[in-house]
Design goal:
This protein has six helices and nine strands; from the N terminus they run H-E-H-E-H-E-H-E-H-E-H-E-E-E-E. It is α/β, with parallel strands linked by helices. It has a single domain, classed as Rossmann fold. A hairpin with a 7-residue loop joins strand 7 and strand 8.
């Protein structure tokens, strides 16, 4: 026993009041509305799950983010298992987003793609349901596969301290497709939603280890991409998005 009465093989706990508060380093997304919802921007090594129904504009939002960050001098990697490089390039050209520093990897071999992530400052995986983890059974999008893909992505982000976003689709029941564990594996869960036949889009944090979940980002979708709504008062009638807890 030590003089404090604690066995030498047992670690002593630290008093909460005596610990230094560590401020989280932030990396701006280049989009003020998104930074506000995140609590100030991306956190190095932090993993964000962006959920939303197919077609709501998740990929468009992230392509704009990637372009803004690349224009700011950061090296960005967009890994897509759902669209070809030609399709993404066509969308980027339509939106006027063709900066240097933005790189695409469009394949379903996620492990090899993640090995390249060490060289980048920001990574997008689109989507978590589109890839397969070799160590897991089942088809792409099955619970085992989603868990395996998410685990590989989180490990990469933490090891390389690269802010990373995983895209997830929403089911008809309002849940992010895949096991509920998926939401516990990440640091932030963002939900992007919009009403049918409306250009309005809402972004909110359903979970945020690095900030508040009270902020709401409002965007308007157009042929030229997503634009922040500067007068949100006229949009207060919209229903806030939620993820079903069923």
């Amino acid at each position: 026993m030590t003089k404090e009465g604690i066995p030498p093989d047992v670690k002593a706990a630290s008093p909460l009041r005596g610990l230094d508060v560590e401020e989280q380093e932030r990396v701006s997304s280049g989009i003020a509305e998104l930074d506000r919802v995140l609590g100030g921007g991306w956190v190095p090594g932090g993993v964000v799950l962006l959920g939303g129904e197919p077609g709501v504009g998740k990929s468009t939002l992230l392509l704009q983010v990637c372009a803004q960050m690349a224009q700011g001098g950061r090296k960005v990697l967009y890994i897509s298992g759902e669209e070809s490089s030609g399709q993404l390039a066509m969308r980027g050209r339509r939106l006027g987003l063709m900066p240097e520093g933005l790189y695409l990897l469009c394949e379903d071999d996620l492990p090899s793609s993640l090995k390249a992530a060490e060289k980048y400052d920001f990574v997008v995986v689109d989507s978590v349901q589109a890839f397969r983890a070799d160590a897991e059974n089942g088809w792409a999008g099955s619970p085992n596969q989603v868990r395996g893909v998410a685990s590989m992505t989180v490990e990469m982000a933490k090891n390389f301290r690269v802010p990373t976003v995983m895209v997830g689709h929403i089911t008809k029941q309002g849940q992010i497709a895949g096991p509920k564990l998926l939401e516990h594996m990440v640091d932030v869960v963002l939900l992007f939603s919009g009403e049918q036949n409306s250009p309005n889009r809402l972004l909110r944090a359903e979970k945020n280890r690095f900030g508040s979940t009270d902020e709401l980002g409002i965007f308007e979708m157009s042929e030229k991409g997503l634009f922040p709504v500067l007068d949100p008062v006229s949009y207060t009638h919209l229903t806030l998005p939620t993820i079903s807890s069923v």
